[in-house]
Design brief:
Largest sheet: 5 strands, mixed
Structural class: alpha+beta
Order of helices and strands: HHHHHEHEEHHEE
Radius of gyration: 33 Å
C-alpha cells in the first residue's frame, strides 16, 4: 500500500509542480501585460494633454466682413496626435483583453492546484486511518482469548480483503480523475494555442491586408491565402478534438454496422495494412455507455498498433456469449514489453483503456504471440 501511495503522491507532486510552474509563467505574462498597459495609459494621458493644448491654440475667429463661415481646421500636428491616440487606445484594448484572459486562466490553474493539494491531503488521511485500523486490529489480536482467535483471524482476513478491494477502487478513481484533469488541460492548451492564438494572428493579418489591398493587392492576396490555410488547419484541429470526444458518434447504429464501418474506415486510411475481420453469429447492440466506450477503446487499440507495432496485418474478431461481448485484436508487429503497464505513462492509451473497462466492469488481457494480442470483454447491459 505504501508503494501505491508513494506512486500516487509522486504523481500529484509532479502535477502540482507542473501547474505551479505554469501559474508562474502566466503570472509573469500578466504582470508584463499590466506594465505595458500602464505605460500606454501614461502615454495616452500625455497625448491627450498635448492635444488639448493644440486645441486651445487654434484661432476660431471669423472675418466679420466675409460672408463665408470658416470652420476651424485641424492642424497637421493635431491630426498626428489624434492618430497616435487612436493607435494607443487600440493597444490598450488589446492588453486589457489579454489581462482578462490571463486572469481567468490563472484562476483555473489555481483551482487545479487546490484540487491536487486536497487530493494529497485526502490520501494522507486515508493512510493514517488505515494505519490506525491496522494498529487496532493488532492490539485486539494480542489480547483476545485463544478460543476466539481463529474466528477473529477469519474476520480480519475478510476485512483486509475489503480494504484491498476499496484501495483498488480508489486507485482506479484516482487514475480516472488524473486522466480527466490531463484531458482538460490538454484541451485548454489546444484551444489556446491552436485556436485563439491563430484567430488573433489572423485578425492582425486582416488588418495588414486592409492596408495592402489598394496599394499592393498581390501582398493582400498572399496574406488572405495564409489566413485561409490557417483557418483550414483550425478546422482540422477542431475536427480531431470532436472525434476524440465522440461528438459525431451515432449510438443508434446497429453494432454490426458500426464495427463494419469502423474497419472500412481504417482500411481506407491505412491501405498498406491487411485487415482480417470476422463476427460470430448474432451480436446485440450494447447500452449507450458501453457502446460509446467501445468506440473509444477501438480507437485506442488501433492507434497503438499504427504508432508502435509496425504491423502489416491486423486480425479483428467479435463474438457474443452469455450476454457478454468478446473482442480480439491481433497484429504481426514487434510486440509489447511484458512490463508495459509499469513503463507507460499514467495518461497513455493503455492506461485509459484499463480505466474505461473498469468503469463498465469489463476485462482486459494483452500478451505477445508473434505480435500483440489484445482481448477485452464486457456485458452489453
Amino acid at each position: 500500500m505504501k508503494k501505491e501511495y508513494s506512486t500516487v503522491s509522486n504523481v500529484i507532486e509532479e502535477m502540482t509542480t507542473y501547474f505551479s510552474k505554469l501559474n508562474n509563467e502566466h503570472q509573469e505574462k500578466l504582470q508584463n501585460y499590466k506594465a505595458k498597459l500602464f505605460e500606454i495609459n501614461i502615454k495616452l494621458d500625455e497625448l491627450v494633454k498635448t492635444q488639448n493644448v493644440y486645441s486651445l491654440n487654434v484661432d476660431y475667429r471669423r472675418n466679420i466682413f466675409s460672408p463665408i463661415n470658416f470652420e476651424p481646421e485641424e492642424s497637421e500636428k493635431e491630426a498626428e496626435i489624434r492618430n497616435q491616440i487612436s493607435s494607443l487606445q487600440a493597444q490598450r484594448d488589446k492588453y486589457e483583453y489579454a489581462i482578462s484572459e490571463e486572469s481567468i486562466y490563472i484562476k483555473s490553474i489555481d483551482k487545479r492546484i487546490k484540487n491536487l493539494n486536497d487530493s494529497k491531503n485526502a490520501l494522507s488521511s486515508i493512510m493514517k486511518e488505515l494505519d490506525k485500523q491496522r494498529e487496532l486490529v493488532h492490539q485486539k489480536d494480542v489480547i483476545i482469548e485463544a478460543d476466539k482467535l481463529k474466528e477473529q483471524k477469519r474476520q480480519l482476513e475478510l476485512k483486509t480483503n475489503d480494504l484491498k478491494d476499496e484501495e483498488k477502487v480508489k486507485k482506479h478513481l484516482e487514475n480516472i480523475l488524473m486522466i480527466s484533469n490531463y484531458d482538460d488541460t490538454y484541451l485548454s492548451t489546444m484551444l489556446d494555442k491552436k485556436i485563439r492564438n491563430v484567430i488573433e494572428e489572423n485578425n492582425l493579418k486582416l488588418d495588414n491586408a486592409k492596408g495592402y489591398i489598394y496599394g499592393t493587392p498581390g501582398r493582400s492576396k498572399v496574406i488572405l491565402d495564409e489566413i485561409t490555410a490557417s483557418q483550414k488547419n483550425m478546422l482540422q484541429v477542431i475536427g480531431n478534438q470532436l472525434d476524440k470526444m465522440n461528438y459525431d458518434f451515432d449510438d443508434e447504429l446497429p453494432i454490426k454496422d458500426m464495427l463494419k464501418d469502423f474497419i472500412d474506415e481504417e482500411k481506407a486510411k491505412h491501405r498498406n495494412i491487411n485487415y482480417d475481420y470476422s463476427m460470430d453469429g448474432a451480436i446485440h447492440t450494447p447500452y449507450y455507455t458501453r457502446y460509446i466506450t467501445l468506440n473509444t477503446l477501438l480507437n485506442i487499440f488501433f492507434d497503438n498498433i499504427y504508432k508502435h507495432s509496425k504491423a502489416s496485418d491486423i486480425s479483428f474478431k467479435v463474438r457474443e456469449e452469455e450476454n457478454t461481448l468478446f473482442f480480439e485484436i491481433k497484429d504481426n508487429g514487434i510486440g509489447i514489453p511484458e512490463d508495459y503497464l509499469e513503463k507507460t505513462q499514467w495518461y497513455s492509451g493503455i492506461k485509459r483503456a484499463k480505466e474505461l473497462l473498469f468503469m463498465i466492469s469489463g476485462k482486459l488481457e494483452i500478451k505477445n504471440d508473434n505480435g500483440t494480442i489484445v482481448k477485452f470483454s464486457f456485458k452489453y447491459e
